[in-house]
Design brief:
Blueprint: H1 3-31, H2 35-55, H3 60-78, H4 85-108, H5 113-124, E1 141-145, E2 150-154, E3 158-159, H6 162-173, E4 181-184, E5 190-191, H7 193-200, E6 208-211, H8 215-223, E7 231-233, H9 236-240
Parallel strand pairs: 2-4, 3-5, 4-6, 6-7
Antiparallel strand pairs: 1-2
Helix pairs in contact: 1-2, 1-4, 2-3, 3-4, 3-5, 4-5
Length: 241
């Protein structure tokens, strides 16, 4: 093993054992709209990741991207960026993207530059572009009753707001206990852990499947162990098979 390989292995061991748990705590605080506390928790692991990746050959893009995420979070902390749903969602999305970026660089030596460029553009715009997909008060889901299941298609691109969760809960409460439920995430960019927690609470009375999740959603889904309460599907059709 070369010295560079040893450094990479040591770094990812630290990421998994130390930094990522801290980041999950910070994201959870942001999700609860405890912005200052969340950013304070995030600041140390992100600062360390930025510094270490800056010295690791091939990981320089991760350092540059993390620096831009840090700058955005500092603006939020200083009150220069509003503490509203679109900005909070963008903050969570960008932090999650740091970890996907470093994993891509480790596994393939390259990364999805279009995805990071998109996030960086929205960070510079202080989250204004993140409002796409409708206001918080719009219905976050569309419900389709099929013979064998109820299908909840997520219409909102980001689901974090308490009013959105309340709408989903009311819809779930209206379904009889013996009906399976499918959640289709195909149109959604990010959701908070509170959303998964809500729907997992119905797993005792319903068979629940989820499909169409992107990498941001799956990161939260698996990090919190929600796969223990619902099935991950390749498609809607696989649910019925």
């Amino acid at each position: 093993m070369s010295e560079d390989d040893s450094l990479v292995e040591e770094f990812f061991s630290e990421v998994n054992d130390k930094y990522y748990p801290q980041v999950l705590e910070g994201i959870d605080l942001l999700d609860e709209q405890r912005i200052e506390e969340g950013i304070e928790v995030l600041s140390r692991p992100l600062h360390t990741i930025k510094g270490v990746t800056g010295f690791m050959s091939g990981f320089e893009p991760a350092s540059a991207f993390t620096h831009k995420v840090e700058s955005f979070l500092k603006k939020m902390q200083a009150g220069e960026v509003e503490h509203k749903l679109p900005q909070i969602a963008l903050a969570i999305e960008s932090v999650n993207s740091i970890f996907m970026l470093i994993e891509q660089l480790r596994d393939t030596g390259s990364y999805d530059k279009n995805a990071t460029d998109d996030i960086e553009a929205r960070l510079v715009g202080e989250g204004k572009a993140a409002v796409a997909g409708g206001p918080e008060t719009d219905s976050p889901v569309e419900i389709e009753s099929l013979p064998d299941a109820e299908v909840f298609t997520l219409k909102a691109r980001r689901i974090y707001h308490p009013d959105q969760l309340k709408t989903v809960q009311e819809a779930l409460d209206s379904i009889s206990d013996d009906r399976p439920i499918i959640f289709d995430f195909g149109l959604s960019l990010t959701v908070g852990s509170a959303f998964f927690e809500l729907i997992s609470g119905y797993s005792d009375t319903h068979e629940i499947g989820v499909t169409g999740m992107n990498s941001h959603c799956t990161s939260i889904f698996y990090s919190w162990g929600f796969q223990n309460y619902m099935s991950v599907l390749d498609s809607r059709d696989s649910f019925f098979k």
